[in-house]
From TrEMBL:
It comes from Murimonas intestini. One of its GO terms (cellular component) is cytosol. This is Purine nucleosidase. One of its GO terms (biological process) is purine nucleoside catabolic process. The keyword Hydrolase applies. Keywords: Glycosidase, Hydrolase. PANTHER family: INOSINE-URIDINE PREFERRING NUCLEOSIDE HYDROLASE, URIDINE NUCLEOSIDASE. The lineage of its organism: Bacteria, Bacillati, Bacillota, Clostridia, Lachnospirales. One of its GO terms (molecular function) is purine nucleosidase activity. CDD domains: nuc_hydro_3. Pfam families: IU_nuc_hydro (PF01156).
Length: 318
């Protein structure tokens, strides 16, 4: 199994991504690091622990990370994910497991000790930027890096051009992309950017939910409870029947490359002004800079859904 750390801000779709990761034998999850994003880090960590309890994996450590973006004032996404970050589903806190302190040192030490650790980042990149600021040389231990964030040709979801994770901490996103361009320890490595172009195609519909309930009632009811708020948000905001679940696609893509397709190029993130948080991918090489990203633009949405249902609800893969 491949060693991974999942950096996240649970968050409804982060919770679904954690379920998928835990249900995937290809992954050895060394730890879950939480960052402020959808909800404050402490709330996000509680939610990660709930997922571990549901999935029967209380042994996976959860670490509290940064409580504020690097520079910008912190803006959460409780309007989308509910006050508790899990769609106001009212699930009790996990019993007997607590988050640990020090997400940034956990990431740093783990990358330092190992040769091949991958990071799947599902929230703002504040923790990762801090690791790079404190100990850039530990990046030599990084195998692959997948980030759910940004948008290539799709609109934003926080401004006309910016996606939430990069908009919430644009400076962190900017620094991480720049590190993949400039740091000697990251030479040749690329950020796999799973942006809104691909994740917007991943829609959990009422029909799929009913199907999950038919094959696994417990799991289906849990997913229904945590996504109801998200369904309502999508209906009010975008007149969509169903909800876009961004983060699980990053996990699925890490395991199964054929689920998304894209191209290599140089990407930067704007930190100021009206386009703050926008990811700008130089697809035609105007800037003559070596690629620091692999930007995913196409996805097999049905293939993803089968992959997700098979693992999370034990559905037949065909
Ligand atoms: C991203 O922002 C968050 O609200 C979601 O969890 C996802 O990571 C989508 O823009
Ligand atoms: Ca997230």
């Amino acid at each position: 199994a491949r060693k991974v750390i999942i950096d996240c801000d649970p968050g409804i779709d982060d919770a679904l991504a954690l379920m998928l990761a835990i249900a995937s034998p290809e992954l050895e999850i060394l730890g879950i690091t939480v960052v402020c994003g959808n909800v404050p880090a402490e709330t996000g960590a509680k939610n990660a622990l709930k997922v571990l309890e549901w999935m029967g994996r209380p042994d996976i450590p959860v670490y509290l990370g940064e409580e504020k973006p690097l520079v910008r004032v912190y803006v959460d996404a409780r309007d989308t994910h509910g006050e508790d970050g899990l769609g106001e589903s009212g699930y009790p806190e996990a019993e007997g497991i607590k988050p640990r302190r020090g997400a940034v040192s956990f990431l740093t030490e783990t990358l330092r000790k190992n040769e091949k650790v991958s990071v799947i980042a599902l929230g703002p990149l504040t923790n990762i930027a801090r690791v790079i600021q404190d100990a850039p040389e530990c990046m030599a231990g990084l195998d692959e890096f997948v980030s759910m964030g940004g948008s290539y040709k799709s609109n934003g979801n926080c401004s006309p051009v910016a996606e939430y994770n990069y908009w919430c901490d644009p400076h962190a996103a900017g620094e991480v992309y720049e590190a993949f361009h400039a740091l000697p320890w990251l030479k040749g490595k690329k950020i796999h950017m799973i942006g809104l172009d691909v994740t917007r195609k991943i829609v959990l519909t009422p029909n799929i939910l009913e199907y999950i309930k038919c094959i696994d009632r417990n799991m289906g009811e849990r997913i229904e409870k945590i996504t109801r708020f998200y369904f309502d948000f999508h209906w009010k905001q975008e007149s969509v029947i169903g909800c876009v679940i961004n983060d699980p696609l990053a996990v699925a893509y890490f395991i199964e490359r054929s689920l998304c397709s894209g191209f290599d190029c140089y990407t930067a993130v704007e930190t100021e002004g009206i386009s703050m948080g926008q990811s700008i991918s130089d697809a035609y090489g105007f800037w003559k800079k070596d690629p620091n990203s692999h930007v995913l633009t196409g996805t097999d949405a049905l293939g993803f859904m089968k992959f997700f249902l098979h693992r999370v609800a034990n559905a037949d893969e065909s």
